[in-house]
Write a structure and sequence with these properties.
CATH architecture: Super Roll
Number of strands: 7
Strand content: 35-45%
Oligomer: single chain
CATH class: Alpha Beta
Radius of gyration: 20 Å
Helix content: 25-40%
Number of helices: 5
CATH superfamily: TULIP domain
Distance between the termini: 27 Å
């Protein structure tokens, strides 16, 4: 029985087939395979993530990240002999949860907590993975991840909606929120990387678990290079 019967394996490593096969698999892949210990990726929850910024410490709680199931695959490269795999895609993601923030933004002392919503429009990402081939204890072949690196771009826009930045003043809260949104790229570059790191690390761990439960032959119809 195929563990992931939504995968349509390619008969070669052509870019066209790999892109289509990956794109078709994403909506099901992000649901995970809970019965086999592969967690879901859309949505997933960031239980707690602290981001120390210059002069400000922001902590997110129970941040629910959604949108991966609608990612668009831009490119896939699979070089089986070199054990090398590249995936490029773009997505709109939304993060909703609670936050607290203590410190200063500009000259404003901040002591806020409340609901947070961050929307990323057209986040672009490229993940570069070195793979290896392993056999499980039944002698079945699997892909495994040796190491990876990634690059990303915040894309077209990041929108912040942080309620109650200043407990004392709604007006001041709105002023600073407008500043954050007007300068979204600068703010994101300081603020966003820990969130993206967290998401990528989770996705890589999920792919690793997926590779361990789904045999190589179910993923691609090309023999392992000797």
């Amino acid at each position: 029985m195929n563990q992931a019967d939504y995968i349509r394996p390619c008969n070669d490593t052509s870019r066209e087939c790999l892109i289509k096969s990956t794109q078709d698999a994403i909506p099901e892949f992000v649901k995970g395979l809970p019965q086999l210990g592969v967690p879901q990726l859309d949505p997933f929850t960031i239980d707690k993530l602290s981001i120390p910024l210059s002069g400000l410490k922001v902590t997110f709680y129970q941040g629910k990240v959604s949108g991966f199931r609608k990612c668009i695959v831009d490119n896939v490269i699979s070089e089986l002999e070199k054990r090398h795999f590249v995936l490029e895609f773009h997505c709109n993601l939304t993060i909703k949860g609670g936050y607290d923030a203590v410190g200063k933004v500009l000259l404003f002392p901040i002591n806020g907590e409340g609901d947070a919503k961050i929307k990323l429009t057209n986040l672009k990402m490229k993940v570069d993975i070195n793979t290896k081939y392993i056999k499980d204890d039944k002698g079945v072949n699997h892909f495994a991840i040796k190491n990876y690196k990634y690059t990303f771009d915040y894309g077209d826009k990041v929108t912040f909606d942080l309620q109650n930045l200043f407990k004392e003043s709604k007006e001041l809260s709105n002023t600073v929120l407008s500043f954050l949104n007007e300068n979204w790229r600068t703010v994101s570059e300081e603020f966003g990387k820990p969130i993206v790191d967290y998401a990528v690390e989770l996705a890589i761990k999920t792919i690793e678990k997926f590779f361990l439960v789904v045999p190589y032959e179910e993923l691609i119809n090309v023999p392992i290079p000797t």
